[in-house]
């Protein structure tokens, strides 16, 4: 869980994770100024504290390394902002199967109207649609979304990725998809 100032939503996000599907929770706190760390510790989550802002990508790289070091077969990225349905984790893992894909993502755009009905501001909706169109054209992909905070990564595949070369900002999400495609590995969505 990449976190920054997530005190208001963290507990609800964790509560929605279906029992029996996650062996360990790791939260990388990106220099929060609220009670994110205290709440995470109270919930029994392993916390990695970043004392300086490492950026979204820097925070995710810390999580990738921690998850892989723990021997994880699959790493689930779940943003603790309660925008994603943690109840979809079993479906994501089912689609992943035995490392069938490099990444399986939970799209807010299947069907497209779900994003608006889910409360996405119109300007964010339009920006996401434009970026997704351009990203698909650039990579020859057919994804409904490139920027989502609910993903399952194959640990087998992620161990082949040069994590330290990835971006320290929001481009990291795009880069992981691009690397999967370059590796001729599939990226699936639900």
Shape: globular
Runs in which pLDDT lies below 50 for 5 or more consecutive residues are none
Radius of gyration based on Cα positions? 16 Å
Distance between the termini: 20 Å
Number of β-strand runs? 7
Sheet with the most strands?
4 strands, mixed
What does this structure look like?
The structure is a single chain. The chain has 190 residues and is α/β, with parallel strands linked by helices. Helices cover 39% and strands 15% of the residues. It is built from 8 helices and 7 strands. The chain has helices at 10-15, 36-42, 55-69, 89-96, 113-117, 122-139, 155-158, 171-182; strands at 2-3, 26-30, 46-50, 74-78, 103-105, 150-154, 187-189. The chain has a 4-stranded mixed β-sheet with strand order 4-6-5-7, sandwiched between helices. The longest helix is centred in the last third of the chain and has 18 residues, at 122-139. The two termini are 20 Å apart. 31% of the residues are buried. The model has no long low-confidence stretch (mean pLDDT 95).
Would you kindly provide a brief summary of this structure?
The protein has helices spanning 10-15, 36-42, 55-69, 89-96, 113-117, 122-139, 155-158, 171-182; strands at 2-3, 26-30, 46-50, 74-78, 103-105, 150-154, 187-189.
């Amino acid at each position: 869980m990449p976190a920054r100032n997530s005190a208001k939503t963290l507990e609800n996000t964790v509560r929605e994770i279906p029992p029996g599907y996650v062996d360990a929770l790791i939260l990388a706190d990106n220099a929060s100024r609220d009670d994110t760390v205290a709440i995470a510790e109270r919930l029994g989550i392993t916390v990695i504290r970043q004392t300086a802002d490492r950026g979204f990508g820097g925070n995710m790289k810390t999580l990738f390394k921690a998850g892989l070091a723990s021997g994880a077969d699959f790493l689930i990225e779940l943003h603790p902002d309660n925008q994603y349905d943690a109840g979809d984790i079993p479906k994501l893992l089912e689609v992943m199967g035995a490392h069938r894909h490099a990444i399986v993502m939970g799209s807010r755009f299947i069907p497209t109207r779900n994003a608006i009905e889910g409360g996405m501001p119109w300007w964010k909706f339009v920006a996401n649609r434009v970026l997704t169109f351009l990203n698909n054209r650039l990579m020859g992909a057919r994804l409904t979304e490139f920027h989502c905070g609910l993903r399952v990564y194959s640990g087998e595949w992620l161990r082949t990725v040069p994590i330290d070369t990835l971006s320290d900002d929001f481009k990291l999400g795009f880069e992981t998809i691009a690397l999967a495609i370059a590796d001729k590995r599939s990226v699936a969505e639900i």
